[in-house]
Amino acid sequence: LGDTTIGDRSSPVLVVGNHIFVELDAGGLHTVARKANGQVWAWGQNVNGQLGDNTGSNRSSPVLVVGTHSFVEVDAGEVHTVARKADGSVWAWGQNTNGQLGDNSITARSSPVLVVGSHSFTAIACGNRHTLALKANGQVWAWGYALHGQIGDDQFQIPDRSSPSLVAGNHSFVDVSGGWEFSLARKASGEVWAWGNNTLYGQLGDNTGTNRNSPVLVVGTHSFVEVAGGFFHSLARKASGEVWA
Hints:
Strand order of the largest sheet: 1-2-3-4
Helix content: under 10%
Number of helices: 0
Radius of gyration: 17 Å
Structural class: mainly beta
């Protein structure tokens, strides 16, 4: 919670330090926040280096991610963090067991490393152990844990992806979101497409319980303006303000 304690709170407490942030995101047990100057600060669990302060020490107040980086977007996975620069480069740190940092390794990192491949991305999103990134041409690329098809490149099998892999289907998306072991993306038309884990809970919204390794269309003649993935469920908002799940 960033209030210098490790006590649970049942009402809001102020994060210490007189910081002014413009963006924030919650991971599994850590929090990340970005300032207008591009600095990213983080607090919480750090056993895998997900705070990016070049240590493995938990922090109960904000610490600055190391390096002279200036980021325009930040997002947190279960135990990793990803940030994007204005030039489209994506940097990542934290747990990397499944390749979710995208640096072509499975080595955990406690400070930012560059995602390989000379890509330029316009948006990023984290699942629990995978990462998604959107390009200006509408392509979605993904890396990390791949077992349930959440990478979307027409494959289920291990090995996981430790570098970006193109989501199949020649789609053009405008928005992307990561769920626990699944992925969601929205088109300019308002259609939402999904892929990955769908067993038992139907979180892909295709009226089945079948895992998918490439995008499938969420059923119904809906047009959404925002989409978000949860643990085993999905949410989408319409321009009218209605939320569907």
